[in-house]
C-alpha cells in the first residue's frame, strides 16, 4: 500500500507554481470581500482639518480659568473663522477648530451666563482636538496590495473619495458531486440514497474564501462520463473541486479520470478526517486548472476545505490573510489519543482568565456534520500522541 502523504507535502504540491490571477477595475460598491491588486496611496489627510472630538468650547489653553465671551458658534461642515483674542467658540463634535484656538473643553465642565462662559482651569493644550492627518497622511500607503476589502477597509477607501479599485479576479471554481447515491434536495430518496449536503456547504465556504462558483455538476458512477464532466468543468474554471470518488472502491472513478486527463500530484493523506484526498492539475484553454478531490463524508469535506481550499484561494488572490488559519494555543478540555494519522478535532473555544480552553465535540466521526455548526476551531493532534485534560494543544481558528 502506498505511503500516506503528510499535510505539509500536500500543501506544497497544491500551491506549487501558483501565479496570482489577473486584476480588474471595479466600483468600490462592488468590492466587498475582494482583494486589492495594488497598493492604494492616500490622496487626503484624514481628518482633513483640526476638529473637535466632542461638544464643548474651543479656546486658547492660556485662557483657561477665565470668564470668556462666546464669539462664534461652529457646527460640523461649516468653516470656522479666526478666534478673537480673549474669547471662546461654541463648538460641536466634528466642527473645525478655529485658527487661534488650541484646545476644547467639554460642555459639561462649562457654566454659561448669557453670552459668557465660565471656563475651568487646567485645560491641557490640544485637549479634545483631533489633529489633521492623525489617522491618515496624504502620500502614505492607505492599503497594501493583498488586503481583503472588508468593512473598515472599504470605509477607509471611501474616506479618500475612492470610487473604483483595482482588485484580483475572483478564482472561478467548478464544484462537482460524484456518486449515483447523491441526490439533490427536493427529489424523493430511494433506498441507499443521500441528499447532497456537501454542495451547499462547500459553495458557501468557497464564496467566503473569495471564490466564484461558476458551475455545479453531478457526476454519475461511470468512468467515461467522469472523464467528460471533469474535462468540461476545467474549461471555464481556475479550480475544479470534487467530492467523493477518490477512494479505492470500484465505482470511485475520479482518480483514474484525473490521471487520464491531466496530472495526479498526490493521493491519500495521513490525516483524520480526510485521508482519501486527491490533488492534481487538469488542462484547459488557459493552461491548467488545479484539481482538489475531497472525500465524500461531509466533515472530511468541511475540514479539507479549510485546510486546502482556503489557502489555494488565498494564493490565487495573492491574499496572505487567507494563506493560513490563525493558530491559538489552548488547554485541552478533553482526553484523546492518535494513531499514525494527524487528527483535526472539531472544538469550541472558551476564553477564560487562565487562557483559551478547547472543548471537543464528543462524536468526532466524519459523518457527524452537526459538530461543524458550532465549532470555532480545529485542534491539531499530532500522530501517536496522548492528550489529557489541561494539556496544551494547537488550534486552527476559523475566524468566521
From TrEMBL:
Cited InterPro entries: MoaB/Mog-like_dom_sf, MoaB/Mog_dom, MoCF_biosynth_CS, MoeA-like, MoeA_C_domain_IV, MoeA_C_domain_IV_sf, MoeA_linker/N, MoeA_linker/N_sf
Gene Ontology terms describing biological process: Mo-molybdopterin cofactor biosynthetic process
Needed cofactors: Mg(2+)
Keyword Metal-binding: yes
TM helices/strands, residue ranges: none
Keywords: Magnesium, Metal-binding, Molybdenum, Molybdenum cofactor biosynthesis, Transferase
GO cellular component: cytosol
GO molecular function list: metal ion binding; molybdopterin molybdotransferase activity
Superkingdom, natural source: Bacteria
Domain MoaB/Mog residue range list: 174-315
EC number: 2.10.1.1
Listed SUPFAM superfamilies: MoeA C-terminal domain-like, MoeA N-terminal region -like, Molybdenum cofactor biosynthesis proteins
Catalytic activity: adenylyl-molybdopterin + molybdate = Mo-molybdopterin + AMP + H(+)
Pathway recorded for this protein: Cofactor biosynthesis; molybdopterin biosynthesis
Function: Catalyzes the insertion of molybdate into adenylated molybdopterin with the concomitant release of AMP.
Protein family membership: Belongs to the MoeA family.
Stated name of the protein: Molybdopterin molybdenumtransferase
UniProt organism field: Vreelandella salicampi
